[in-house]
Structures are given as structure tokens and as C-alpha cells.
Amino acid sequence: MQDRLELILDSIRDIKGKKIVRLDLRKLHDRPADFFFVCEGESTTQVSSIANNVQKRLKQEQGELPKTATGGRHANWICLDYFDVVVHIFYPETRAFYELEDLWSDAEVTAYDA
């Protein structure tokens, strides 16, 4: 699991993702996954590029494909669901609107420098 988490973080950083946080949800009773990654891109093009890089590297380096990948059409919020890890890539205004970190505020939060 730790290798996969590090690979996701590195894949986001490759494309200069901003405001990266990891939410550890494992102690929460009704969690949808064990971990969430939340980050943002400065444009919809960057949001798409981050999502594409995460998918490409997980497929090439670990043979994993997401269960679902949603939001690619408008690239304001792309969600990659890898069962126990979900990656949320936002356009800044969309991230502010949904306040995902506040919704899961009981999670253990790790913030990363970009």
C-alpha cells in the first residue's frame, strides 16, 4: 500500500499538482475508501494531465486500472477510484465549492509541498 501511495503522490508532483493532501480514512466507521488524495491544477488542462499521469503510471508500474474515472469531460473535478484509494483532482474554484477536506474533517490529514 505504501508504494502505491508514494507512486500516486509522485505522479501528482510530476505534473506540478498544487495543494496536495492525503486523508487517512481508516479510523472512520463509514469510510468509502482507506485513503483520499486531494489536489488541484491551475487549469482544466493541468487537471486532466495530472489524472492521465496518475492512471498511466499506476498502470505501467503496478498494473492497476481505476475502478472508475469520472469528470474528464469538463476537467473541473476528476475522480479516480482505485477501490481503497480515491484520487480527487480539482480545478481551484470547484475544490473550494465542494470543500471535500471539510466533509472528511475527522480523517488524519497529511499535507505535502508541491
Write a structural description:
Pfam families: RsfS (PF02410). Keywords: Cytoplasm, Repressor, Translation regulation. The protein is built from four helices and six strands. The protein has 114 residues and is of the alpha+beta class. It has one domain (2-107): Beta Polymerase, domain 2 (2-Layer Sandwich). A six-stranded mixed β-sheet has the order 3-4-5-2-1-6. Strand 3 and strand 4 form a beta hairpin. The chain starts with a helix and ends with a strand.
Draw up the topology in text.
Elements: H1 2-14, E1 18-24, E2 35-40, H2 44-62, E3 68-70, E4 77-81, E5 85-90, H3 92-98, H4 100-103, E6 108-112
Parallel strand pairs: 2-5
Antiparallel strand pairs: 1-2, 1-6, 3-4, 4-5
Helix pairs in contact: 1-2
What is the percent of helical residues? 25-40%
Q: Give a short account of the largest sheet.
A: 6 strands, mixed
Shape: globular
CATH class categorisation: Alpha Beta
Number of strands: 6
* Strand order within the widest beta sheet: 3-4-5-2-1-6
Instruction: Using the 3D structure, state the CATH architecture.
Output: 2-Layer Sandwich
Instruction: Give the helix/strand class.
Output: alpha+beta
Number of helices: 4
Task: State the low-pLDDT regions, or none.
Answer: none
Helix and strand element order: HEEHEEEHHE
Please give the radius of gyration in angstroms. 13 Å
Note the beta-strand portion: 25-35%
Name the CATH superfamily assignment. Beta Polymerase, domain 2
CATH topology name:
Beta Polymerase, domain 2
Distance between the termini: 22 Å
Mean pLDDT, all residues: 96
Count of separate structural domains: 1
